[in-house]
Amino acid sequence: MGKIGIGINLEFVRHDDKPFEWGVEKAAEIGYEYVEPMVHWGRELLSEAGYFHSVSMLDDPLRIRRACEIVGVKLSGLSGHTPLCKPEIGTEYLKQAIRFAAECGAPVVNTDEGPKPRWTTEDEDFVLMRYVLYEAALLAEPRGILIGIEPHQQYSQTPAGLDRISRLAGSPAIGINFDTGNSFLAGQDPYAWLEAVKDRLVHVHAKDISIKQSEAERGKVTGTPVGCACGDGVIDWARVIAICKTAERDLILSVECGTIEQAVRSFAHLKTLL
Fold it and tell me: How far apart are CA 50 and CA 119, in angstroms?
């Protein structure tokens, strides 16, 4: 049976105009044992100036490792989302994220199929995704890195679609990063879906959805950037945890919320259940 840990995606500090290291320190201060940094390609103004939490993959991967070691937290994975339907972007982006993860010590790289090109058919999109994932798996397997496919876009919003994507390359390195909030907003039963994929999970995004957002968007969107505090919304966390505890792999619930205050409440709620 799997053990469950509590982590947090660093998007919880994205509105505080602070750098990556500050976000890691804040997560540790709240009590989180794991963090999930977001990485990006190239250089951009806000993170370079220290006003945003994302880390460039042109930077030293040991920057992430050192920041975690200083405050005593571990890495649950990297948020390395890139459009798998666009191989001119996704192939090299995902390959670089895998190499970056291996050096900084993150066991998982999370991604999704991303927005599709406007001109391609569904059959063509799955060929393109297979190319990207096959190339990525060739790097992930020898490095011991897992790729987590997340339900977040047009094809992964259903159990059948997510299953098809995750099996395209036939690689043991490719599993599922289940997002509780995205699956709910897509109009699915998140508990039945989680139960069905529990033995293929490599990571879990613990995202709650407020009643207001649920009433306005459920069945109309395929996902959302962040949710409300865990325990404040529609997701039954005791039920989620019970399912995850029967998985074959140890799992991290990586909280996805939008503010520090929500991160504090999420940690308190999940801690009581664990």
Answer: 38
Domains held by the chain: number:
1
| Nearest-5° Cα angle at 74, 191 to 81 | 60
Q: Report pLDDT for 32.
A: 98
Give yes or no for residue 68 having a pLDDT over 80. Answer: yes
Query: How many C-beta neighbours within 10 Å does residue 63 have?
Result: 15
Residue 194's domain is classified under what CATH number? 3.20.20.150
The pTM score is: 0.96
pLDDT in tens, 139-148: 999 999 999 9
CB atoms within 10 A of CB 60: 13
Q: Measure the CA–CA gap between 108 and 51, rounded to whole angstroms.
A: 26
Which residues, in sequence order, are CB contacts of 28 under 8 Å at separation 6+? 71, 72, 73
The answer to whether the beta carbons of residues 266 and 226 sit under 8 Å apart is no
Q: Which domain holds residue 267?
A: 4-273
Label residue 6 exposed, middle or buried (CB < 10 Å: 0-12, 13-18, 19+): buried
- Who contacts 39 (Cβ-Cβ below 8 Å, separation ≥6)? 54, 55, 56, 57, 78, 79, 80, 97, 100
Question: pLDDT, tens digit, for every residue of 211-245?
Answer: 999 999 999 999 998 999 999 999 999 999 999 99
Question: Residue 192 is encoded by which pair of tokens?
Answer: 């039945």
d(CA 180, CA 52): 26
CA of 26: how far to CAs of 22, 34, 47, 74, 215, in Å?
A: 6, 12, 17, 14, 32
